[in-house]
Amino acid sequence: MTSRKLAGRIGAGLTALALAACSQETDMTADTTAAAPQTSALIERAGGIEAPRADQRPVEIEQLGFTRVDEYQWIKDDNWQQVMREPEVLDSDIRELLDAENAYLDAVMEPTADLQERIFQEIRGRIKEDDSSVPERDGGYQYFTRYREGGQYPIYARRPIDPETGEPAGEEEILVDGDAEAADFEYLDFSSMEHSPDHQYVAFGVDIRGSEYYEIRIREIATGAIVATLTDESSGDFVWANDSETLYWVWRDENSRSKRVYRQSRTGGASELIYEEPDDGFFVSVGISDGDNYIVINAGGHTSNELRLIDANDPTAEPQLIAPREENVEYYLTEARDRFYFLTNADGAVDFKIVAAPIGNPGRENWEDVVAHRPGTLINAVIGFADWQVRMERQNALPRIVVHNYGSGEEYDIAFDEEAYSLGISQGYEFETDTLRFSYESPSTPEETYDFDMATRERVLLKRQEVPSGHDPEDYVVRRIMAPGHDGVEIPVTILHHRDTPVDGSAPLLLYGYGSYGITIPAAFRVTPLPLVDRGMVYAIAHIRGGMANGYQWYLDGKLEQKINTFRDFVSAGEALASEGYTSRGNIVAYGGSAGGLLVGAAINLQPDLFAGAIAAVPFVDVINTMSDAELPLTPPEWPEWGNPIENAQDYETMYAYSPYDQIQEMDYPHVLATGGLTDPRVTYWEPTKFVARLRDRRTDDGLTLLKMNMGAGHGGASGRFDSLRETALNWAFALMVVGLADEEVEAIAAE
User: Fold this and answer.
1) In this predicted model, what pLDDT tens digit does every residue of 723-750 receive, in sequence order?
2) Which of 46, 84, 544, 591 could be bridged to 211 by S-S, CB 3.0 to 4.6 A?
């Protein structure tokens, strides 16, 4: 599922909002007066710095009988597709505005430069710089990823092993040195990194602009030479056939849509078109089945898909369709010895079920239920081994791992104890094995990686995430509360705070959320929030509707005409955290990125007085304009998520009612920091730029409205692992500043 990265009856309240929106008089809350901004010397100083003012060049847009005026539409470069590939061609007026915004942000945040450096060093000090992954065995080698001390990019490497013991039996071979590859570029991102089945070659995708167009390179491992470059128009998605001579790769069109699958020799030469997707609402991807017997082509939208299989042992084979696409039906494949198993929501299985079919005749007419649908228990992942099937389920916002033996039919859970935690499962390269690798972590417990013997149920700890500067889980408290929603639902909220932080309403709080595409934010260990938590801020994650924390229905109840539930849930979470003493109204910083930036923008329109500040990272905030532009990369594929305002008046009304850009009012707002990336194809640079321009123009207070535009990166920001931490340090300095925690530390640092 592509995303800005996974319905029900319209309520009377939302209908009223939509009607009001179209008359340009939306009042999303009875109280539109924000709490007084936090006062501090840093904020007062910033008020004396003149902010840029974007030119207003109004454009009247008529659509489905509605009219809206966009005074900042000019910020979208007419030549935006070329800008994604060649940033230097950006219109000079737009570049001048973005440069002015960056200069203004630098001036406002300049007094926090040393604080940012301290936060950066604290985060970096918690990262093991020469870390490495737990090796994965494949044939006669162990494959792994590591970092060198001070290195920004991963090194992909392997060691030969003793076939009897599985222990290392030779020196490390570097397959791809990320730091060396990045030496000549401001930005670099790797996509897939796959060695050939015969272990002689490695293929990898490289993006040097942040535009998500990847060049696929093939390196001969013995010599280190690049023997072929297949394309520079790939989505970065590719897979080897079993002959080690053939690759299947995905082509991305001029609108950044993954539309075609090609077959090509590893030596280069002519490519053969294998599949082309005609529907702009569907993207394609390629993979390989669990037993390595089938190349899998997935053509999928947000709510439906179809699979085609190619014999991975026959490079000349043609793709065979399993089951044709049906509206709102998804199915995903795992392989056993003589059967295929499909994870699917067919036949009304909202939280998904597992069905089986013969490998020789896998069409839907032969599907038989093997794990029945259980409402409220979401099956969100299945992997297969020769004798075992492992599935990940989620119930009551917590994950669990279920192991099933094909032969005996026996199955069991792997148990865990903490109040909130996150799990991951990995199959590795081997199919004929009893070993499952899984990971466990919580907001206070660093990640632990285990090998689990599915036959004996013995678990062996392979690695515990090391925190070089030190970390004691007992210093932190993890809690899970259920926040009452506006319509009676209970919203899970995960909380992390230092054990010395009082729970009496005095602490400021950073509230994170996402709430779209069915993506569930795990209760995982992250070193990045700890500098805030150590300074007395509470960190909370709101598991709101639009994600799947409480099952697939939780997702359905936060999309399309019910999208307003996502934003109200976030507000309800903040209100519950205040009422239970974790913080207080007006002392919360909202934080979210991409579709989570939409959440942040909608929330501050809905309830501005709840927040002291808001951080909207690469935010999807210009909803109506974006979803009305069918040429943008993600627009047609995302109509099932948001609606189609080009053809459907009700969709237009619904979107307009919550679109952050369109709903900016003349009222007081919290302090706001928005970020963007010039070459971002997912949330284009003009969305945060327009949002900041209009917000600065209309707000009735003296609060900060800041924009940080990364002129050399895309959706993910800076590409180096440490460079990206500087962006986090900027965000955290802003958060500390707007809740009044930065002044004293800035003064203390200056006095040192």
Assistant:
1) 889 999 999 999 999 999 999 999 999 9
2) 84
